[in-house]
Amino acid sequence: MFGFIWSVVRLKCPKCRKGNMFVKSSLFAIRDGHKMVEHCSCCGLKMEPEPGFYYGGMYVSYMLNVAFFMPLFLAYAIWLQPYVNAFLYFVLLVLVLLALSPYIFRLSRALYLAFFVSYDPEKNR
Ligand SMILES: [Zn+2]
Predict the structure, then answer these.
(1) Which of the two residues, 84 and 122, has the higher pLDDT score?
(2) Ligand 1 centroid vs 39 CA: distance in angstroms?
(3) pTM recorded for the entire structure
(4) Gap from CA of 67 to ligand 1 centroid (Å)
(5) What separation in Å is there between the alpha carbon of 58 and the centre of ligand 1?
(6) Is residue 12 one of the residues assigned to a domain?
(7) In Å, how far from its chain's centre is CA 101?
(8) Total structural domains within the chain
(9) From the CA of 121, how far away is ligand 1's center (Å)?
(10) Which residues pair with 20 in a beta bridge?
(11) Residue 80 falls within a domain, yes or no?
(12) Range(s) of the domain holding residue 69
């Protein structure tokens, strides 16, 4: 289980857990930051199994955003409300969301592909 989570967090191929899923390793690459490799460089896994495969990744992205921001919202509603300005807190959350969006985009794709591809390092190519 730890290996699964670690490979998803590091955006590695779910089959071999070694090859990179994205062309550019930098999260904030303005140009081609969203591009994925066609096949894994280690095991040859096709990163887009079928056209439109990653439409389902949008639901994973939504789930990740809710999982990350709901605790922050609840922390404000329960504890921070008397001390912190609501508008400033909202602006801060939006800025954090914008800063994390490239990683959450990639993470959602890695997690979605890992749902369908099992770890199998022996079966290369
Ligand atoms: Zn691979």
Answers:
(1) 84
(2) 8
(3) 0.86
(4) 28
(5) 23
(6) yes
(7) 9
(8) 1
(9) 8
(10) 12
(11) yes
(12) 2-116
